[in-house]
Amino acid sequence: xxxxxxxxxxxxxxxxxxxxxxxxxxxxxxxxxxxxxxxxxxxxxxxxxxxxxxxxxxxxxxxxxxxxxxxxxxxxxxxxxxxxxxxxxxxxxxxxxxxxxxxxxxxxxxxxxxxxxxxxxxxxxxxxxxxxxxxxxxxxxxxxxxxxxxxxxxxxxxxxxxxxxxxxxxxxxxxxxxxxxxxxxxxxxxxxxxxxxxxxxxxxxxxxxxxxxxxxxxxxxxxxxxxxxxxxxxxxxxxxxxxxxxxxxxxxxxxxxxxxxxxxxxxxxxxxxxxxxxxxxxxxxxxxxxxxxxxxxxxxxxxxxxxxxxxxxxxxxxxxxxxxxxxxxxxxxxxxxxxxxx
Length: 342
Prior knowledge:
The chain has 342 residues and is of the alpha+beta class. It contains ten helices and 19 strands. The chain has helices at 52-60, 62-70, 84-88, 97-142, 149-152, 201-204, 253-260, 263-272, 284-288, 297-337; strands spanning 5-7, 12-15, 25-27, 34-36, 40-43, 72-74, 80-82, 146-148, 153-157, 170-176, 192-197, 211-214, 216-217, 225-227, 236-237, 241-246, 274-276, 279-281, 291-293.
């Protein structure tokens, strides 16, 4: 066996091979020794001079990641590798041992908070999944009958790209692509523009309350959708998306989105999908034929409200987690550079 080393409790393990993975690190805390392969560098601290947690914090800092990225080379197997000889020559700031330990304890406390928040998010996700399942079961029981989606909503495809008009009779507007439509929300961080005839703007424009569903893609993305909130007007959508405009006398778009994303909805999409070039697609005729349980509107409102309350809690937790991660990064830089004393 080549390029192996025994990892002991307290060692810092550093991923040393592979684009996008170099620089990942952790402290090995198992009570028994393990053998690691040549893709991992084991850093064993002189405990009389340095705390392993300090080494790991330095490696994970912005400075450490930039340093590691700049000391890589392409190895004999055409993989990007970290230069261990350069790593051995690296000079790092080393405060006294007590200061290192105090800093490590602060960062450990922050990591524990992050871990707790991640666990909370996982529990909330399971709770939402259970609520959706119960809600659909309730909707089925409360429904007098199923109705075809074509009876409950207008379904239309969007702008076909590639043959854009020109001149004063046209206008350039933002539009939603498949990549913008996620499972239950829209990612509008990167919006693109399309030019259409002014006479077509109303036809392809979205309204608040429109449900957008993806026409195709990988099996797990088939029929993925979200309800548009109308925050950007006008906004168009491309032809690989279906716009579902609900008849509000019968069905709420939020309830319909709940059903299409449920196990029953996804099972229907999987059953009717056509597979071409490793991608699955559905067409508007089959989408209109989708049978949907339609409980009274007051029942739909109650189901939607319970799910939205959970979703709002999840969103708040996600924002807090993002803020905590940003805070930790700033705290790491301040503590490791000495701008802030432990």
